Amino acid sequence: MANTAKIPVVDISDERNQQEVARELVDAAIKHGFVYIKNTGKDIPVEAIDEAFEISKRLFKAPLSEKQACSIQQNNRGWSAMHYETLDPATQRVGDYKEAFNFGDFVDGKAQQPIPPTIAPDEARISYFRDLCYNLTLKLNTLLGIGLEVDPFDFFTRAHLRSAGPSGSILRFLYYPPPAPDTPTDNHANIRAGAHSDYGSLTLLFRLRGQPGLEICTGTTTMTNPDGTTIEVQNWAPVPVVPPGTENDPAPPILINIGDLLSYWTGGLLRSTVHRVVFPKGGNGIEGEQDAGPRYSIAYFCHPYGGTKLGVVPSEKVKEYVERKERDQTAKGLAVVNPYAERKVMTADEHLRMRYVRLFGKDDAATDDDRLRASYLQLYEAKA
Ligand SMILES: O=C(O)CCC(=O)C(=O)O
Ligand SMILES: [Fe+2]
């Protein structure tokens, strides 16, 4: 049995004591940065998930010309071709072995971007699914507010309301084709999705039974080379689609992870964990997860309103954590960098732009402010 990730499964049903649910979610977000939401079919009906996967499969099978006509734009909407994205440029020699399609906002069930004709009749259903994801993220934001004892408890929720203004939220269909026979699958030359952390506040991830590949970084090990020099090697643990206790649920649990924005906003208290998607290695050791065929997943990346100021979160828990970390750094003789001490508080849009600058390596687009923020962020990306 592979050393699988020990991510908690939380049942967020309304019948449960919501204080308790909130505590469980926050504990997982602090410790793992990931948490499974038990799928009872109440928050997101199982049929809606099945439908979304069915549409996604048809979309990626559509003629290339249809997809190319919807190629991804500056606004991060549209189709991203095989190898187009490189999530881990430091390690990867070629871009990710995947295709993706990003959906931004819909208005009255209509996409505000070009849609391949093959799935044009499904627009309203995609919009409905995106709404279900949005509603679930509002509930999760409220629970995180309760668990962090933020005052007011709906502080995060309000920042994520559509009525607050446009955001970077994206519904993304992902397709990982089976590796071609000559494809090297050693994770360095070629990988389905390179190691990365997500950019926004929360990500919802839907996966299919029998389609493994997601792994989380659980830490690093220092290795000594023959010449005495040392290198840090990342340790990886597969994330089962169907963790123990959920085998009889109507659908696999929805996997939630904390993104960099929420980690930054909470001074690093909530953890944004690095993850990646690898090719099947003759099964990953998890019972029932042996599939070497194509892999489909669906992600919903939740972002607050673009103008949200990522200043101090009104929570004693966050404040105590930031102060404790500063004391620890001082005791270790390390420089103390307080992100809240910036002369101008960064907004959600600025945070996202900073990440795009890094993803696409366009440093010429970066301003001094971007670089300053990047240096602050590095501190919070030190996944202690
Ligand atoms: O496909 C997956 O399982 C994960 C995808 C992912 O991490 C991402 O798109 O950010
Ligand atoms: Fe991700």
From TrEMBL:
Bilayer-spanning residue ranges = none
Q: From the UniProt record, give one GO term of the biological process aspect.
A: small molecule biosynthetic process
Where is the secretion signal located?
A: none
* InterPro entries with a match to the protein in the record: DIOX_N, IPNS-like_FE2OG_OXY, IPNS-like_sf, Oxoglu/Fe-dep_dioxygenase_dom
**Fe2OG dioxygenase domain segment(s):** 166-304
> PROSITE patterns attached here?
FE2OG_OXY
Annotated GO molecular function terms are:
metal ion binding; oxidoreductase activity
Domain of life per record = Eukaryota
Alphabetically list the UniProt keywords: Iron, Metal-binding, Oxidoreductase
Q: Is-annotated flag, keyword Oxidoreductase?
A: yes
Q: Does the keyword ATP-binding apply?
A: no
Which family is this protein grouped under? Belongs to the iron/ascorbate-dependent oxidoreductase family.
Q: What is the official name of this protein in its record?
A: Fe2OG dioxygenase domain-containing protein
